[in-house]
Batch of 2 targets.
Target 1
Amino acid sequence: MYTQAMDIAAAKGEKPGKPTRLENPEYQAQFDDKVDRGDFIEAKDWMPEAYRRTLVRQISQHAHSEIVGMLPEGNWITRAPSLKRKSILLAKVQDEGGHGLYLYAAAETLGVSRDELVEALHSGKAKYSSIFNYPTLTWADIGVIGWLVDGAAIMNQIPLCRCSYGPYARAMLRICKEESFHQRQGYDLLLTMMQGTPAQRDMVQDAVNRWWWPSLMMFGPHDAQSQNSADSMRWGIKRISNDELRQKFVDATVPQAQVLGVGLPDPHLKWNEQRGHWDFGAIDWDEFWNVVAGHGPCNRERLQARVSAWEEGAWVREAALAHADKRAARARAA
Ligand code: BYC
């Protein structure tokens, strides 16, 4: 496993365990130069402790979001209306599992273990995206998640491909390619439903009404309330602010809604010629913080599902470890 504290000390000929990361003006200046030049920081490079902690927080929350994000859609795999739609949904949900794994691996390069990360999720200490605490009530929700939720995710994640931490940036390249397929399959599903019966069109409109505002909340609080943004921007982790990304998402999505023929549930949505952007109404931040605090419609159910999966999978982990021990013993005896 990667433990950068040991690697850095060894690489610099210092005693392992010495907290070289904590304060060192010379290393700090080299780090700042690298970030300013737009070079990647790699796992074995010196980095300020606060940078490392922010990355562990963000990457692990991102990983948890992917894994928890499998649940609302997984709920519909058995009820997909055709073989084609079932295989697409199955592939998409598997992709989300893969994204979670790349991201856990990227977080592990920062000296935390997978077990610590999983424990933080299961104990409720670590956050995951607010969006996955809403229920998927109809088949149209699957299309709307692809269109709006994956659409918002792409908007937020493309800039992360240029994030200053190499392992995170490289994981994001592949994730973004797959997210783009996810967004298209959702939009395609909705286009098909909108050419169907009035009941199908109503189902799509109802799903859009329920998912629109939570999708806008995915970008996080307004910039003025975003406690982590200043540091993350300075360190090149974030490249575009929460509010700017939210605006880009609204601007990209309104014309797509027009093509689909659905309304967006915001009476204040209006093209602003002067700004060259769509104006939109106020987000219900009480709802957002309530969901983030664990009191959304499905928070309890989602965490329970993850904890049960972990407990029910204990035998697989034990069997894999026993097998590894046997192989190691055989190799020693040979
Ligand atoms: N939900 O200072 P801020 C997917 C928290 S998965 C919950 O602006 P930051 C998909 C935030 O953590 C997509 N919490 O934070 C999967 C912070 O609290 P802490 C997931 C939120 O980090 C399956 C506090 O509020 N994407 O695409 O600078 C199926 C103040 O916020 C949320 C990512 O994880 C939220 N929405 O900016 C389909 C992308 N927003 O941690 C699709 C990577 C904020 O200080 N993450 N908070 O206790 C990011 O880009 C950034 O972390 C955020 C927040 C923009 C989300």
Target 2
Amino acid sequence: MPEADISKVEKNYYTDQPQKNEAFFLKGCNNYDWGFKNRLGRIFNCESGRTVMLAFDHGYFQGPTTGLERPDITILPLAPYADALMLTRGILRSLIPPSLAKATVLRASGGPSILKELSNEHIAMNMEDAVRVNACAVATQVFVGGENETQSVMNLTNLVDAGNRVGMPVLGVTAVGKDMVRDAKYIRLATRMCAELGAAVVKTYFVPEFETVTAACPVPIVIAGGRKLPELDALKMAYEAIQQGAAGVDMGRNIFQSEAPVAMIKAVRKVVHDNMKPEQAFELFLAHANLKRHKA
Ligand code: R5P
């Protein structure tokens, strides 16, 4: 029991200062509950409104991808520079120290390996487990136009229903099949579908006319890095995406397959959070990487 309030100091109710009622900083996310917003607020930096998410969930269908043969050796040194880690619960529990205070986005879908039809995914994780490991979001792919389009859409909507019950945001990932045209028209369709179906954040690929993609999507978009590019090109892509309305990157290979991954993630951070021009960020990359310019 607290003791009785017998202070002689006059109480101050600050009656001249109305209580603030600020909108949540992420677009389209103002009407969620406290826990839901708190999770998003751990993924996205509330100052810049953006995130550098480090994606290394590739093993869930690709096995030990180049650069991810030993995530304990290649990924853990990068973790301090990421705002959030996108990974599987298997790698989380086996290799990530619980003391690492980073937001996590858990891959929640799975099924086929690279040997089979990739769109034949199902939800492969119970929401209770995401809560148990204190995840900040869960992710599933939507294969718009793919062989199992409807199944993947139902994966998303089922995950959103389960997430809404416990305050867990869902990251909808637009998976683009090998034979699909990766252009603004397709990406607008796929990202908007993810948002309409309840994804709180959407991950997609950068394409020309990206500002129309971000404009047509009512929730934040983060871009995947895609296949490994020369570092300057990857920084230019991140810069263009941010300038055209992306709320960050969810980048994997262009960071962990870089010749100097720590230098690369530091450079990406500058582009994402500080609007640094890609050429300047590349100079930083070279300085931190101690590489010769022609090698990058
Ligand atoms: C792909 O299936 C994985 O979910 C990755 O998270 C995603 O592709 C982003 O990684 P990257 O930047 O290597 O494309």
